[in-house]
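Case study 2.
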Amino acid sequence: MRIRKAVVTAASPAQRRLPLQNLVDRDGQERSVLGILLEEIVRARVEEICVVVCPGDAGNYASITGDHAGRVRFVEQTEPRGYGHAIHCARQFTAGEPFLHLVSDHLYVSRSQASCAAELIEVAEAEDCSVSTVQATREGHLKQFGAVGGQRLAGRDRLYKVDTVLEKPTPTEAEQRIVVPGLRAGHYLCFFGMHVLTPGVMAILEELLVESSTGVVTLSAALSELARRERYLALQMTHRRYDLGVRYGLLTAQLALGLSGRDRDEILSQLVELMALRETAAK
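Prediction:
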């Protein structure tokens, strides 16, 4: 399996402006969130990128693609039919090929020089199947993420065979259905926001869209069905993901980027100064 294409979803009406926000990256350069994500993808040797957007947003997004404009195309999600439908809108672009998928309201900060996407693609190509990245997450955050249950592969510390996928489960539901041996109590494998998906996912999404009584389809529903039909793995990441859509999400992501980059010492010094001023003002 060779991953040449990537699909980025940016069509959520509530979060459509997040990819346009500017942050300072690890190299000290000011870039848009979308620009940082595109760099993540390109560093993983992906050749073509499709960004799924709300109607009318393509022009704004195209203006911030920078050096990667030649490899990016845009597709509109013309109906609000959910996350799964947004991915399905890129079916002509993927054209029966496996593809990398990222969400546009998360940033990914690697603990090494290799990008998070590159690590995922390396595993997916070696295993020749769909692989979702996951992260051990406290049960208090389950309402924000899809989650998986399964068994660790023999001899592989961070790789799991997925047998169950739940969309934003309650703690009770998670405890009953997706406890993974070896994780700390109260922690579950929640989606990291990055996947390599086989063409089978597009076929399942199409089926679900036809069958849906509400017209809305989630990616978790498709991945749950995928686990019944194909070999499907989860890769536990040691890197970090940052949800930009939550309160202070952009601020937290900016701090994480800065503290992982070349200006770490300067930022730490400024944080110490801010804390000292706060303590002085409180006296």
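The first helix runs from residue 33 to 42.
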